[in-house]
Design goal:
Order of helices and strands: HHH
Strand content: under 5%
Structural class: mainly alpha
Radius of gyration: 16 Å
Number of strands: 0
Oligomer: single chain
Distance between the termini: 39 Å
Number of domains: 1
């Protein structure tokens, strides 16, 4: 259920979509696009041992 950048631009100018709804959509899209499993060792190398 992803949106293209063009679709998001159109939605940003759509008066029927509230700013809050739009923000939620963008955040959801961002997290879907950048979904990677958390790996503590990349943040805290000492956690690997």
């Amino acid at each position: 259920m992803g949106y293209t950048t063009e679709q998001l631009k159109e939605m940003a100018n759509d008066p029927s979509i509230s700013r809050h709804e739009f923000r939620e959509l963008v955040l959801k899209q961002f997290y879907e696009d950048n979904a990677t499993p958390l790996d503590d060792t990349s943040i805290y190398p000492e956690a690997s041992g």
